[in-house]
Every structure is written in C-alpha cells, then in structure tokens.
Amino acid sequence: MFIGRYEHTIDQKGRTSLPARYRETLLGKYDERLVITNSYSKCLDLYPYKEWELLLNKVNSLPSSEKAVKAFQRFVIAGGKECAVDKQGRILIPPTLREFAGLEKEIVFVGVSNKIEIWNKARWEEEFNKSKKTLEEQLDTLANYGL
After folding, report:
1. Are the C-beta atoms of 81 and 8 separated by less than 8 Å?
2. b/e sequence 63-99, b meaning 16+ C-beta within 10 Å
3. Could you give the dihedral angle defined by the CA atoms of residues 76, 78, 79 and 84, in that order, rounded to the nearest 10 degrees?
C-alpha cells in the first residue's frame, strides 16, 4: 500500500527519485515494473504492473461501446508507458506525460493506496486545499460510510 506525500525534484531529462518508502513497498509486494499514465486530476498515475493488470482486466470486462469506457481507454490506457526503477532508485517520466501534468522542477509524490500520483507541486497544493474543503463539507457523508 502506498501512503504519504513526498516532495522531490525532477531534472530536465525527466528523471526523479522514487521515494524510498515506495521503493520498499514495490520490492516487498510487487516487482520493479511500473506503468505511468495520464490522470483526470491533471497529475500522473504510477501503477505497479500488477495493479495495472488488475485495472486492465476491469476495463476489459466493461462494454467497450460505452462512451465513458472508450474515453477511459483512449485517455488513461493509451496514455500509459512502461517505466522501471533504475539502480539509483530513479524513474524516467516521458516528455509528453511531463507536459500533460506540468511537471517542471518541484513535484510531489502522493500515495493513494494501490497507486502513486505525481503532481506539479503548486497544483498539488491547490488540489490538497480543495480536498480539505470538500472533506470538511462532506463529513456527514463519510460518517455514513463509517469513516
């Protein structure tokens, strides 16, 4: 499971260090293969390959004639790129994905259970504040779910 937030930098070639805590999780539960793709949240989603396969199986079980399914396949699945962790614990984020997410110098890795989100730091701070406000407004709903 991936949890927590970690601030890092990304170089001009798109290399960044994967947080050590996430590397430990990968080695303990998964292998070092990863898939990185677009997210509807204007960030990138980084999946261990095993989790990516589960997502693909779920998508493949849905009716491909549905507009929402087609959009998901074209945006998320087709946007995916395999990437691996190198010996220094770094990943390489392709230029098209860096551009999509606005990744320049300062980035934030955010663990969200079975995947990792990669954010432009300024966008993350905006999203975090929006999420905090939404959470405060929706406490009753969450209480109904037992949270």
Report:
1. no
2. eeeeeeeeebbeebbebbeebebeeeebbbbeeebbe
3. 100
Q: Could you list the residue range(s) of the whole structural domain that residue 44 is in? A: 5-121
Residue 131 maps to a domain: no
Tokens of 7: 């601030």
Does residue 89 lie in a domain region? yes
| pLDDT tens-digit series, residues 126-138 | 999 999 999 989 9
For residue 136, is it within any domain? no
Q: Which amino acid is at 3?
A: I
pTM: 0.93
Q: How confident is the model at residue 147 (pLDDT cuts 50, 70, 90)?
A: confident
pLDDT of residue 32: 82
CATH number of the domain enclosing 93: 3.40.1550.20
